[in-house]
Amino acid sequence: MARKKISETTRQKVIKAHANGQSMRKIAKECGVGLASVHRIVKEKELQKGQKKGAKKKVNIERQKRIQALEDRIAELEKKITKLGVKKR
Known about the structure:
The protein is mainly alpha-helical.
């Protein structure tokens, strides 16, 4: 069974609502389309803009920076613990 064609107006409403932070379930209900259709429309729009690939890399870079900062802090604390342990004995 073929999918029902979603009008460009509806697509634009979906994209605008998503950009405004509305939940996908609410968008689907208000626009009268399925949740999967909302997901697909948003995904297509992100891929057109190239946001998904770039955003994912940016998130990974930020995550690696946070991990490195935490590992550095852990190393500092381990050194302090070692010094305190040596002083007590």
